[in-house]
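Supplementary notes (optional reading)

For those who missed the lab, this is the record we used. Protein: DUF6916 domain-containing protein. Length: 96 residues.
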Amino acid sequence: MNVLTLEHFAARVNDTFISVGDGNAAFILKEARPLPSATLEGLLRAPFSLLFHNSSPILFSQKIFQLQHDAFGEVGIFLVPVARDNHGFLYQAVFN
């Protein structure tokens, strides 16, 4: 899988992705949505955003997480912490 698109993730909302390098931390995909984009020729994909939830009380720093999922195998996704709730932290990935 060379270029990930929104369609790869849209059917995976509420699925768990396991971060293999972080003690098998579970990241649950909570949202997959398109982002506004200019109409530019040659784009490999339309921009989109993913929002993951991790229930650990420990904040992970932004970095590339090696996330494992049955549909993808292992894929590196750059996650940035964006919010905290009563049950953990939210992390966002933006693809453009």
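If you only remember one thing from this example: The longest strand covers residues 73-85.
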